Amino acid sequence: MNPSILVMGFSTRHVAQSAHEAGYTVYAVDHFCDQDLSWYTRDRIRFDELADLPSAVQEMCSKYRIDWAVPTSGAETLAHGLPVLGTSPEVAARFLDKVSTQEFFESLGVPVPRLLPDGQYPAMIKPRSGSGGWRNRVVCSREEESLWHEEFEGMESISQEIVSGIPASVSCLADGKGNARALAANRQILRDEGVSAFGFCGSQTPLEHPLAPRMIAYAEKVAASSGCCGSLGVDFVIGEDIHAIEVNPRFQATLDTVERSLGLNLFSAHVRACRGELPDKVPNPSCFCIRRILFAERDCTISGDLSGLSPAVSDIPWPGTFFEEGQAVVSVYGWGPTPESAMHHLDRHIRRVRQYIR
């Protein structure tokens, strides 16, 4: 019988798909429970708020015999009673705290944006914990900072100097014993407009840049020293210089573009890394792959079944699903031998998808 895993967190489809293709029996606890999640899981439970996640996990565990838990975003430190296939909750907690992460980068001599004293502007204000970037904001005055705290009442924050450049990340594997291997450098695609301008909305793999080799070297140093096990990512801004931003002690949202570009199964590589086996050699990219998350530009409904567009789409909503303005609707992909051809492919797929959004 195939080993069984429970993938749990705010969004799980990418990990569930990779695990299913690696031959595992997959269960999921997920906020979205999109149509394609049902393709890769034996059963799944949807939750609304993260506060509902623990009870949903308990319900799934009461129904099935599950061998391993695989946390994604929002579940990194959740207590559930299952052995974790990946980074332990204790280690993950260190990197969910941005002050602790800042101190970690500084201890390794890895460049990081400076923490700013109270009242110094302009500043990048962000939650002390959390991921996704959608609450990060540039503030230029005490009044703007106060408005941020009013909007996110009770949320502890940090303020950093603003660094310019390309948002980037490096996908890594670590064995938890001081060894790590970088798999791919990725370009992070941000929303770039509105109050969620720094929110993640896609990726391109690989990222070609003159400073990419140095960024990869920093990432391997971070990953090897982190204590993380299996798949993890290190986020950077790469411009005239390189600045590390955060560590994601779990599978990252770049999984799809990394797998398609490198032609490997990342879940299988994750399992081997958890057993202490890191790849001697990383495959060369076979293509450029771009993922773009489409957000509702207005209140809208999906008028038909998008599943026929797979593999050009994923995170596929059920026909008739209603979305409020600003909500994530679907992921769309493009790939090709150059970044330009991949973008052309992506744009063509986006035009097809928009025909289903009414």
Q: What's the quick description here?
A:
The chain has ten helices and 17 strands. The chain has helices at residues 13-21, 37-40, 53-63, 89-96, 98-108, 142-151, 212-226, 255-262, 266-274, 339-354; strands at 4-8, 25-30, 43-46, 68-71, 123-127, 137-139, 157-160, 166-175, 180-190, 200-205, 229-238, 242-248, 288-295, 300-301, 313-314, 322-323, 328-336.
Which key terms come to mind for this protein?
single chain; 358 residues; alpha+beta; Rossmann fold; D-amino Acid Aminotransferase, Chain A, domain 1; 8-stranded antiparallel sheet; 4-stranded parallel sheet; 17 strands; 27% strand
Describe this structure in words.
This protein has helices spanning 13-21, 37-40, 53-63, 89-96, 98-108, 142-151, 212-226, 255-262, 266-274, 339-354; strands at residues 4-8, 25-30, 43-46, 68-71, 123-127, 137-139, 157-160, 166-175, 180-190, 200-205, 229-238, 242-248, 288-295, 300-301, 313-314, 322-323, 328-336. With 358 residues, the protein is an alpha+beta fold. It folds into four domains: 4-85, Rossmann fold (3-Layer(aba) Sandwich); 92-108 and 165-274, ATP-grasp fold, B domain (D-amino Acid Aminotransferase, Chain A, domain 1, 2-Layer Sandwich); 123-160, no CATH class; 288-354, Aldehyde Oxidoreductase, domain 3, CATH 3.90.1170. An eight-stranded antiparallel β-sheet has the order 12-11-8-9-10-13-17-15, sandwiched between helices. The protein has a four-stranded parallel β-sheet with strand order 3-2-1-4, with helices on both faces. β11 (229-238) and β12 (242-248) form a beta hairpin. The longest helix has 16 residues, at 339-354. The chain is globular and about 55 Å long. The chain starts with a strand and ends with a helix. The mean pLDDT is 96.
